[in-house]
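Re: that chain you flagged

S.,

Sorry for the slow reply, it's been a week of failed gels. I finally had a moment to sit down with the sequence you sent. For the record, here it is as I used it:
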Amino acid sequence: MTEEMLECHECSAVCEKVLYPAACLSMDCRFLYSFQEDGRTYFGCIQKVFPHEIDLKRFQDIERTKGGFGVVKVSRQPLPHCSVAVQSCYQTEEGPLCRNLYFKRRDRREVQTVED
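Prediction finished late last night. Pasting the structure tokens below so you have them in one place:
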């Protein structure tokens, strides 16, 4: 079995696989863990698909806003049930510059480029 790429640098666009932590929580993923430290609750992925431990209260506060919490970059191969997308770092009026259709078609959706 060939391991999928987590990033693509084949053209001028840099694309990367990202994951929605909100989907992990909503599906009650069995690989989520949580712990408390200094009166705050943090959650993360046992499989380290995303390497971050996220403050649950801050996550919930941000999730209630219009844009929601958003995505985090994956750090290892996503599991089959993970809610994964492709995020392109560059975009034009014609759409993303990425030309690697194989990399993009392996995912369920595409994330809009984050603009400052």
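What I noticed first: Helices lie at 21-26, 56-63, 101-105.

Talk soon,
D.
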